[in-house]
């Protein structure tokens, strides 16, 4: 993955997906693991203007999935949002 070097990127998007709930014995990854990155981000930023929505429990993944070892450096995430009123 070291050949896939990313540069700072900004997107305007809404991402809607399922979620594997966190349990007392398994951490789902939280919002910091909601987006997946395969590039080496080094010190680059990934900025999201928009919405991240977890609408349902995932039917494909489950808490028994073994966590994998990181193969690349994750970006510094910048999340810009307006909270619901």
Q: Can you characterise this structure?
A:
This protein has 85 residues and is mainly β. The chain has one domain. Helix content is 0%, strand content 34%. It is built from no helices and three strands. Strands 1-2-3 form a three-stranded parallel beta sheet, with no helix packed on it. The mean pLDDT is 77.
Head-to-tail CA distance between termini: 42 Å
Q: How would a crystallographer describe the biggest sheet?
A: 3 strands, parallel
Widest sheet, order of strands: 1-2-3
Number of helices: 0
Computed over alpha carbons, the radius of gyration is: 14 Å
> What percent strand?
25-35%
Counting helices, strands and paired strands, the structural category is: mainly beta
Strand runs, count: 3
Which descriptor suits the 3D outline? globular
Number of domains: 1
Low-confidence segments, given as residue ranges, are none
Please provide the ordered H/E string of secondary-structure elements. Answer: EEE
Helix content range: under 10%
Q: What's the pLDDT, averaged over the residues?
A: 77
């Amino acid at each position: 993955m070291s050949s896939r070097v990313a540069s700072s990127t900004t997107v305007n998007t809404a991402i809607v997906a399922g979620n594997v709930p966190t349990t007392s014995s398994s951490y789902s990854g939280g919002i910091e693991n909601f987006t997946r990155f395969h590039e080496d981000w080094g010190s680059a930023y990934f900025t999201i203007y928009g919405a991240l929505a977890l609408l349902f429990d995932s039917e494909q993944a489950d808490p028994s999935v073994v966590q994998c070892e990181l193969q690349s450096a994750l970006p510094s995430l910048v999340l810009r949002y307006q909270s619901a009123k």
